[in-house]
Description:
By secondary structure, the protein is an alpha+beta fold. It has one domain. It contains four helices and three strands; from the N terminus they run αβαααββ. A three-stranded mixed beta sheet has the order 1-2-3. The longest helix is centred in the middle third of the chain and has 18 residues. The chain starts with 11 loop residues before the first helix and ends with a strand. The N terminus is likely disordered.
Amino acid sequence: MSQSTTDSEPNPQNEEKKAGNSDEVLVQYVVLRRDLIDTWPMGSVVTQGCHASVSAIWSHKEDPHTLQYCSPENIDSMHKVISFLIFLHGFFFPF
C-alpha cells in the first residue's frame, strides 16, 4: 500500500479507511523456491506455500488490510500471486 507523502505519522483511522476502500484489490504474494521442485515432492512444496500464506495472515491478523482481505465479503474472491524463484550462484531470481 502506498501512503501520501503529506502524512507525517501513520494514523490508524486513515489506514482503516484505506483498507476499507472496496475499489482496491488486495493481493497476497506467495514466493516459492523453484529448486525445491526438483528435490521435494510437489505436495510438500505446495504445503510450504500454504503454511507461509497462513502464517503471514495470522502474524498480521489485526492489520486493517488483513481484516479486509479475510472479511466475509471478500472470502470468496481472495487474490494470490504465486511466483517461483530459482537459486543461482548464491542468489534467488524470479523464474
